[in-house]
Amino acid sequence: MNKVVKGEGYLMFDDFLHQDELLAIQLYLQFENYFLVHSQGWSKSWRMNDGEPLASMSYMYSLLTEKTTLNDNVILQGIHILSVKISTISARLRDFLGADWNAFSLTTFLYPAGSGLGWHEDDGQYKGAYIFYAHPQWKPDWGGELFITHQSVNPSAGLPEQIYQASEEVLRMSGITGGAVGPEFGWTLRERNIFDDGIGTFISPKPNRLVIVKPEYSHCIKKVDVSAGDNPRCSIAGFFHIN
Ligand SMILES: O=C(O)CCC(=O)C(=O)O
Ligand SMILES: [Fe+2]
């Protein structure tokens, strides 16, 4: 680890894994199983035009047991390398995010050219998120940047503005009382917040970079450019929570 940057809403570590650990995880990731994120129907974390990213199963790491598990089976290799490494900086992460988490998830995502992830905040039930970039190389023109706003927003800001002004009766009739994703008819509080401020940070998905994002900061992945060719944007991402 040779560079740490702390910004508005994020904390970033470069050269996070040793070179041999990175190679081992890259080898493992090529043999991982992936499915299309929409294979079970529309997963609304992604907008209609966000393309077709792939995801692995979600693993869990507990600070209490110090084990990575998949459906209660203990994993000792591959993705466990990252669990252990993140756990070594847990004091620092608790300092940044607050101390009330003791576990985190780990899911691998492959974003092929043309895919991305629209503006969102991570689910308010989590204490924060991390993303680790695992592809062997990334060029500045390949897109896929992580953008983060400078201005925090109330989580669950994804409903249209007129819904927040609507009567209780409208909400009762719809059966919907909250939520951060969907087709978003009209301007949402999130969009207004991002656009009013209109400024933020971009973080390139540099290989071996770990980024921590606070829950109340809107962020997105800009679509991977065609110039990335057949190099997918490969990340391991997860959320910090109480087990
Ligand atoms: O991959 C990234 O850079 C961000 C991913 C993200 O925001 C998410 O999965 O919620
Ligand atoms: Fe996110």
Automatic annotation (TrEMBL):
GO terms for molecular function: metal ion binding; oxidoreductase activity. Keywords: Iron, Metal-binding, Oxidoreductase. It holds the Pfam family 2OG-FeII_Oxy_3. It comes from the Bacteria. Residues 102-242 form the Fe2OG dioxygenase domain. Belongs to the iron/ascorbate-dependent oxidoreductase family. This is Rps23 Pro-64 3,4-dihydroxylase Tpa1-like proline 4-hydroxylase. It comes from Biostraticola tofi.
